[in-house]
Amino acid sequence: MESNIKKTFRQAIKNGTGDAILILQRNPDENFDQAIIEACNHNLAYDPQCEGVRSDYLLEILSLSKNKDMIENNIINNLRLSKVDNWDIAQLFELVKCLAFAGNKEAKKSLYDRYLKNLEAGYEFVESGELVELDGVEGLGYSAEILGRHLRMNSDFWVDDSLIIACTEFYPDSEPEKFLFEKSKTNDDIKTYLESIAETKESIAQRESPPEVTYESISALISRGKSVPAYAGRKLSHDDLVRFSIDFENDRNKEGYESYLKIFSRIKYPGNIEYIIKFLNSSNSRVVFYAASVLSKEKNSAIRFVIDNNGIEFLKDKVTLFVNNYNEQDTVLLLNIFACLENEDDIHSFIGDAIKVFENNTIQNPSILFNKLYRSNHCSICRQAMIKVLMSAKDISEEILQELLYDSELEIRELAKNYEREV
To answer: Smallest Cα–Cα separation from 73: which of 43, 100, 98, 107?
Structure first.
């Protein structure tokens, strides 16, 4: 059975919070290797596309582990064996690159081995700039040759010049284009790679601009039941927005409600705001989401009436209603809403909405809610936003402040250092 300290560590390393490093420092005799291996081999960030990888943080943790060499070998071998192109392998490439930079020769070999496996059956093609970062034009040449060979076998595959740009950034005097051009004279794979880049550039140049956003074009989409772009409201003129609000309030076609609400979800509604309230009871979750987004921009007694006269089950997906209609006692209500959430995505959505509420209102003790959210959240973007609110209110505990100095997000570490200097 896992001990409490190991459970706490496992949650901390998943969250990317600094208490993982502090636990290692304070418990040198404990073995946390399994949790460290899991975190190194799997990107545990909530949204890796936005948050990226936690390589610096994980390497710091790795340096404090009981069996550092064993874990390094595990990471290196798993990179070779990973067949799927996902955020886990992106993290493995980054970590193994760092080990190679530190002088681990087997790590460097593993990077080249896995890139070569891109050509093998059963292995998804993983595009990676690590070889370029590690070895400059030599790494670029190897990558270009593999990419060119793959292009010759897969006509629907395409490449851009991102690796060439990366090489120029990492090695400004390397002249990567000249290097590849000379190589292409005797290497058909590199020649194919350069030809594909040229084709991609030409295709981008010929790409048509998106259609203009007008009252007529958006009306046509609505009438055909097509999706309306989320940015439409910000592109339309005020007069067109007023026309759409009139259309919406007079349209009895339920199929169009979602599109109308989507138009106004990012801007202030120019019509009768109380008309929107009834859509909070829709059976269509997207209609409810957009209706709550529209209402979140208004301070209105009718919206406050909705908050005061409905229970947690009704309010749990409508927290944005509090943004401009918050009362001090609502912190307890938000705590109760949070307590009933179990789904990870629902929790993340709640945290994002709660941040908007607290950013838009002067709240004396945001830590009452945010301390709980801090421990229940593995999104560094949300964590940074919460920390800024806590620091602004000067309501951050010494315990959390010390953890922030070791956070997986380097910007959060800087926030903590600056806060310590100023307070």
So the answer is: 107
Considering only the C-alpha atoms of the chain, give the largest distance between any 2 of them, rounded to a whole number of Å: 76
d(CA 16, CA 286): 31
φ/ψ region of 416 (left if φ > 0, alpha if ψ in -120 to 50, else beta) reads alpha
Q: Residue 196 has what pLDDT? A: 96
Task: Write out pLDDT tens, residues 348-364.
Answer: 999 999 999 999 999 98
Distance CA 101, CA 177 (A): 25
Burial of 295 per CB tally in 10 Å (0-12, 13-18, 19+): buried
pLDDT band at 207 (very low <50, low <70, confident <90, very high): confident
Looking at residue 172, its pLDDT comes to 96
Reference 357, options 392, 385, 322, 311; nearest CA is 322
CA 353, 359, 362, 368 dihedral sign is positive
One-letter amino acid at 147 equals L
CA dihedral for 98, 405, 338, 282, sign (positive or negative): negative
Question: pTM of the entire structure?
Answer: 0.91
Contacts of 357 (CB under 8 A, 6+ apart): 319, 320, 322, 323, 326, 330, 334
Cα-Cα end-to-end distance for the chain = 43
Q: Which amino acid is at 57?
A: Y
For 128-155, give one letter per residue: b (16+ CB within 10 A) or e.
bbbbbbbbbbebbbbbbbbbbbbbeeee
Sequential DSSP letters for 15-41: HT-THHHHHHHH-TTS--HHHHHHHHH
Dist CA 73 CA 76 (whole Å): 5
- The closest of 150, 141, 154, 132 to 185, measured between CA atoms, is 141
Task: List pLDDT tens digits, range 213-229.
Answer: 999 999 999 999 888 99
Q: Rounded mean pLDDT of the chain?
A: 95
